[in-house]
From TrEMBL:
Entries under InterPro entries matching the protein: KR_dom, NAD(P)-bd_dom_sf, Sc_DH/Rdtase_CS, SDR_fam
UniProt keywords, alphabetically: NADP, Oxidoreductase
Pfam family, one: adh_short_C2
Superkingdom: Bacteria
Domain Ketoreductase residues, every copy: 7-190
Lineage: Bacteria, Pseudomonadati, Pseudomonadota, Alphaproteobacteria, Hyphomicrobiales
Natural source organism: Ensifer adhaerens
Entry keyword NADP: yes
UniProt protein name: 3-ketoacyl-ACP reductase
A molecular function GO annotation: oxidoreductase activity, acting on CH-OH group of donors
Gene3D superfamilies: NAD(P)-binding Rossmann-like Domain
Family according to the record: Belongs to the short-chain dehydrogenases/reductases (SDR) family.
Membrane-crossing residue ranges in chain numbering: none
Amino acid sequence: MQQHTDRVAIVTGASRGIGAAIAERLATDGFTVVINYAGDAASAEKLARRIEEKGGRALTARADVADPDAVKRMFDATEAAFGGIDVLINNAGILKTVALAETSDEEFDRHFAINTKGTFNTLREAAKRMRNGGRIVNFSSTTLALNLPGYAVYNATKAAVEALTHVFAKELRGRDITVNTVAPGPIATDLFLSGKSEELVAQFAKMPPLERLGQPDDIASVVAFLVGPDAGWVNGQVLRANGGVA
């Protein structure tokens, strides 16, 4: 574990998958990490203990990002514990593939509430609370470039996130805060693998020229770059980390 910095990072949806990998990587890089989760307290606490056992600092924070009051409480708790916020990683999201014509109102609303409004809620709070010199990383998806059947509503939520990124980066002018988006390709997480046959998973794995599924650590490395000192001139961009699939 590296020496601690005084920088504090909130990672949403961090109890498992890509979010957990990001939290661990940032802790290794010296960040104090706030592990946000919506329901899986056991996994979040286990991750926090693992980080602390390696010499890092971590706090778990239960909050449904779709609820603006819950997001405000999470920011309040972070400031109370650590004095401020320097990094926001908007990783929380859901995915259910279904044809547009068969999508219920409830499923449409659920996707936009978490994927889009959840990102909006944290960005709005960050605009008021983040320390100057901060870093924000949102999450989109390479599915936007693939236009696969069944992804219409999910893609719409992520297209909105990319739009928020481009505009918000300019609205924070003068504060030395960068806002970027990572758009992963197929990553071997429960979110991606759930409901897919072995044959379909193998098909996705062969799509990139690198002929494999991405791993959570692949994305954590990209995020670590964007929040680190070497990415200070990268702002308002969408980085498609997908092994060359699109």
